[in-house]
Amino acid sequence: MSECAIVGINWGDEGKGRMVDLLTEKFDVVVRYQGGGNAGHTVINEQGKFALHLLPSGIFRKDTVNILGNGVAVDPENLWKEMTEVMDKGVALTPENMKISDRASLLLPWHRALDELEEKRLADKKYGSTKQGIAPFYSDKYQKKTVLAGELFYPEELREHLAGIMEWKNLTLTKVYGAEPYTMEMLEEWIGTYCEKIKPYVCDTGSFLRDAQKAGKNILFEAQLGSLRDLDYGIYPYTTSSNTTAAYAPIGSGLPSAKISDVVGVVKAYSTCVGEGPFVCEMFGEEAEKLREAGGEYGAKTGRPRRVGPIDLVATKYGVEVQAATEIALTKLDVLSYMEQIPVCTHYMVDGKKTDRFPFPSAQNKSTPVIEYLDGWKTDISGVRRFEDLPEAARKYVEYVEKAIGCPITYVSVGPERDSIIYRK
Ligand code: GDP
């Protein structure tokens, strides 16, 4: 039996989806334990190319059971749209292979509206929300002002519960933002059009997981976004509104007794960041443009160009520590093949002092990167499948990163396809 988590080490978009898709072969169950539809995992396999937002990346394996845990923001509208899209491409999603926790809270129709209204109010001071309603959702969840997916099985109580929350929420919508109030008719329409569609998938996933654990099944916990977006350990307030770190997996999955023995941290061979906030190693101009183009760094959900930079060993080491990563998957090494010399951010300068410690968020805007250059390899490595077959400079790059972050790199990914991978264990 093994319980393993796959997490992002940096700002997200490290290629977690592609790693989960690869590793699910060994797992019976894949559980998403936090976040909502505000991120995109890109998965390319023999069934096609998919941009997953809420669905666990194990849905492409025939015998894998996929679960949206209680820590996830379940948006019935977007989830159903995503499920329909995936099913239209021939992927089977049945209540047997796809389950939604009855204890997951539902993202309600006004959560996305509130995100829009708040970003508008903030104008140029905005934080770069993806406007998926995630922050309003989690604030309401912690205020106990949303409903659980399992309440769909109790229609009378559900309507009464929703009416009470709506009355409260309409005060904010109308009095704070001057927006239109919601009505029960609107909620009825939402229930009928979306909630009823996902209802067959809702069940007691907690007991399912406990049984799976007892039966010695292999369980994989899938995170969304990266360490630096964790609500408690990330670059607050430029974080998401949930915990992306592996330590949250037992709580958010619905298996509090999970003993996660293996944490696979996904690190990209260079850095990218979506949205606002400090990004110390950021590159600009033509150099940045080239890297962005080479890596296709545009958001899977929003299409926004991502900010790019060299690998940031300061942030990555911190990410490895807060995730308690036991091994690393280094992705997109092939993207660096065009570079003569490869920049690496080894330290930060903070208040005139050189440091390899990740600074407190407020100090990051005043930090500057210390850059060193390693030799490039200038060869296409996308067809390489054995570490020893990589050019020497590429091997040195991997070994240099490994030493700096203090965690073994056990996978090196050299292309987006499932088999474009080098195993190092
Ligand atoms: P996630 O949210 O962490 O899963 O990451 P994204 O899906 O947003 O971004 C990863 C992107 O890189 C996707 O388009 C993947 O298909 C692609 N990708 C993943 N690994 C590799 C790799 O090793 N090489 C290349 N060239 N692309 C990769």
The first-to-last residue Cα distance is: 19 Å
- Which molecules other than protein and nucleic acid are bound? guanosine-5'-diphosphate
How would the global form be characterised?
A: globular
Estimate the helix proportion, in percent: 25-40%
Please identify the oligomeric state.
single chain
Biggest sheet architecture: 10 strands, mixed
Counted beta strands: 18
Give the mean pLDDT: 94
Number of helices: 12
Our estimate of the beta-strand percent is 15-25%
Spatial arrangement of strands, main beta sheet: 7-6-5-2-8-1-9-13-17-18
Helix-strand sequence: EHEEEEHEHHHHEHEHEEHEEHEEEHEHEE
How would you classify the helix and strand content by structural class?
Answer: alpha/beta
Low-confidence stretches: none
Gyration radius over CA? 22 Å
Pick out its properties.
alpha/beta, binds guanosine-5'-diphosphate, 425 residues, 12 helices, ten-stranded mixed β-sheet, globular, four-stranded mixed β-sheet
